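The following record pairs a protein chain with its ligand, magnesium ion.
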Amino acid sequence: MDEEQKTLDMEGAVCPLPLSHGDRIVMGHGSGGRLSHELVEHLFLPPFDNPALRAGDDAGVVQLAPGSRLAISTDSHVVTPLFFPGGDIGRLAVCGTVNDVAMMGATPLYLAAGFILEEGLEATILQCVAASMQAAAKEAGVSIVAGDTKVVQKGRADGLYITTTGVGVIPSGVNIGGAQAQPGDRVIVSGTLGDHGIAVLAARGELGFQTEIESDVAPLNGLVSAMLSASPGVHVLRDPTRGGLATTLNEIARQSNVCILLDENSLPVKPGVRAACEMLGFDPLYVANEGKLIAIVSPREAQKVLDAMRAHRYGKDAVSVGEVQAVPSKRVLMKTAIGTTRVVDVLAGEMLPRIC
Ligand code: MG
């Protein structure tokens, strides 16, 4: 968008339709992939633009007073079904926001929760979801201190949607963000890829076969805290949720102006997830996770960080999956199992709608 158009937008005189899919929202705008990025870049950033938002990280970082920084994040949850193996919409709503705050190296402290309820929803379902939210909040060490409830007519929503907003304090000296990756850094993932997406699909009955796969949904702030205590060498943290590892690494490669080179042989994928992906034509690199993080770490500190991760329940399968290079910048490449190198792009369409 050029400067002149931007000025007009700010004055409300012109409302362009800058989306490549025309003048309507499509499901892909909720994918976390290319269309979601387009929506943010062309529709939300121009009117809301400020340094915290423009940084494009998992949470906005703001300064309250000199030396006192807060990370703030918000996330809406529309997963269907409401309950799935390993979790439910309530646990997801707490962990999703706790994790986005934690990915800035912040200690999450407080959450607010907004509920949109469909007329006719069974109160016992809401009770179960609230209990699950409280259990997850307790595990994460956060309190839910504000909330809101709205009810819409039957047929105007799908049971229950939850939006959570979280704040956390960034300890002094911690400076983590998507723009901090440096050539030579190691890329670590905290565990197996794609568990959440496949577990939700299985709960919908869309796999056509039985699987034992459970969602990995979990609060990661304890893991982050252990990593930061072990080493000052953590440069980037991000949770690969919608769009999966591939999309998240592309975001980091662009923010840091680097190339990320993955090693396919080292990617951790459970056999059940791999089998489901092969049957459905999915690539586990693009399937959502809700209890995993990517850490980009200085090479000297990588082993120390890995050891700290493996000692934590949510990082026991942590493994190094690649490294950061200078060129080709803003790209993710992968050394494949057969020895070739291929480009790993962002998620293009909408693979698994309403996964979180
Ligand atoms: Mg995130």
